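Duplicate of #3305? Posting structure anyway:
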């Protein structure tokens, strides 16, 4: 979940800065002699939408290291660190990808993988994960993260986020133009306050809708990464046990509060980047 949150927040920040700069320098004026120039607006939306997503992907490793306080342990002499690095190396070779940077950070049980390229990714685990799981379960979590890298999930996420950004930017400005010209009857050459306010509000509202789409894809890829971890380990049991541990349960139990990695039920589930843990365990059980 951390890697998705970092990606989305960075992307939003970049798009917001680009929008502010374009407003200051007058780069987002799409009025022609016959009204709104949809072609120019679409081109602007594409550039703005994908620039934010691509830039956030390119700096994802740096942002993750900085914000999470990740310590790179590839060359660490510590026996536990060496075991983690060798586990990452073994799975990477089996998956056919380059050796990632391996990191450790202080925090609750969790792990993440990020990076713009399969052969130069970052895989990081938390100290809480090492303290709360046995080695087989930790290996399953590492396999899960390696599967994310192998599947190219961060690149795919970037493309989806770019498309969503484009639609948000395009639709908010088309609707803002309609509000300004038709509803508020602004007949001046320049766009009025109705356009500015409408675009600001719609960027936020449509941004939430776009995040639902991104979150839906993220939930689907978690199932694929779970399956990838099972393939790397040759069995589904370690991943099932690791998920159960993350949910605060003993392996095999499915009752109680098991949705530790996602908001379960109702509107909240639409924004969750991870499916409920019991659904992930059930999907693994069905692979037998």
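Output from current build:
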């Amino acid at each position: 979940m951390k890697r998705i949150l970092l990606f989305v927040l960075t992307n939003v920040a970049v798009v917001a800065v680009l929008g502010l700069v374009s407003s200051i320098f007058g780069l987002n004026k799409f009025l022609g002699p016959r009204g709104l120039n949809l072609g120019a607006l679409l081109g602007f939306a594409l550039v703005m939408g994908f620039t934010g997503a691509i830039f956030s992907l390119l700096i994802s490793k740096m942002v993750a290291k900085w914000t999470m306080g990740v310590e790179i342990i590839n060359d660490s002499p510590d026996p536990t660190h060496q075991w983690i690095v060798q586990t990452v190396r073994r799975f990477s070779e089996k998956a056919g990808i380059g050796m990632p940077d391996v990191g450790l950070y202080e925090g609750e049980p969790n792990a993440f993988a990020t990076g713009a390229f399969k052969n130069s990714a970052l895989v990081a685990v938390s100290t809480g994960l090492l303290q709360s799981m046995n080695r087989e379960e930790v290996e399953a979590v590492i396999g899960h993260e390696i599967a994310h890298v192998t599947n190219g999930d961060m690149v795919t996420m970037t493309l989806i986020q770019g498309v969503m950004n484009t639609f948000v930017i395009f639709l908010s400005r088309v609707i803002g133009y309609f509000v300004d010209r038709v509803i508020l009857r602004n007949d001046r050459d320049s766009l009025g306050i109705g356009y500015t306010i409408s675009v600001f509000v719609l960027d936020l509202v449509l941004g939430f809708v776009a995040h639902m789409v991104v979150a839906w894809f993220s939930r689907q890829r978690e199932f694929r990464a779970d399956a990838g971890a099972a393939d790397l380990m040759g069995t589904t049991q370690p991943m099932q046990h690791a998920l159960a541990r993350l949910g605060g349960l003993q392996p095999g139990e499915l009752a109680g509060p098991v949705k530790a990695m996602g908001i379960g039920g109702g509107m909240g589930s639409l924004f969750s980047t991870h499916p409920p843990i019991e659904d992930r365990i059930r999907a693994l059980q069905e692979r037998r």
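Confirmed duplicate; merging threads. Residues 193-233 form the longest helix (41 residues). The beta strands are 31-32, 35-36, 71-72, 101-105, 111-114, 122-126.
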